């Protein structure tokens, strides 16, 4: 049984002053596109302005850690720093060990990246055993749809930016 969503949050968060980046892989584009759209929709519902959601791409999920670091650095150098970034990728198990190597290495690299960029890096990597699972988690498969996990990632980006981001007051 799958548990849906982030659960009850302790307050409503205002994202109107935030700049949030999304960097996504281009593999599994139907699923990726739905996840990106879900994240954007949720962030906008929390007040993040369309012009403050910056979207970039990389070839695949393995490239997400390096691409994310360069994306964050480039925004900062341009004088338009981000408050959080959401790397989005989809890995689907095949018949070789490729899935395990890419899933583990990408997960660890994204986790460690938070300290390097000093901002929230939201874990937007689906690691699914089947394409059907990925479709369900992207809210695409109507019969088996859980919900769009991109929406959770967008909400997490706003909450983490407001509470713990590089521009919060504490």
Automatic annotation (TrEMBL):
Its EC number is 2.5.1.78. It holds the Pfam family DMRL_synthase. SUPFAM superfamilies: Lumazine synthase. The keyword Transferase applies. Pathway: Cofactor biosynthesis; riboflavin biosynthesis; riboflavin from 2-hydroxy-3-oxobutyl phosphate and 5-amino-6-(D-ribitylamino)uracil: step 1/2. GO terms for biological process: riboflavin biosynthetic process. One of its GO terms (molecular function) is 6,7-dimethyl-8-ribityllumazine synthase activity. InterPro entries: LS, LS/RS, LS/RS_sf. It comes from the Eukaryota. It catalyses: (2S)-2-hydroxy-3-oxobutyl phosphate + 5-amino-6-(D-ribitylamino)uracil = 6,7-dimethyl-8-(1-D-ribityl)lumazine + phosphate + 2 H2O + H(+). The keyword Transferase applies. GO terms for cellular component: mitochondrial intermembrane space; riboflavin synthase complex. Keywords: Riboflavin biosynthesis, Transferase. Catalyzes the formation of 6,7-dimethyl-8-ribityllumazine by condensation of 5-amino-6-(D-ribitylamino)uracil with 3,4-dihydroxy-2-butanone 4-phosphate. This is the penultimate step in the biosynthesis of riboflavin. Belongs to the DMRL synthase family. This is 6,7-dimethyl-8-ribityllumazine synthase. It comes from Huiozyma naganishii (strain ATCC MYA-139 / BCRC 22969 / CBS 8797 / KCTC 17520 / NBRC 10181 / NCYC 3082 / Yp74L-3). The lineage of its organism: Eukaryota, Fungi, Dikarya, Ascomycota, Saccharomycotina.
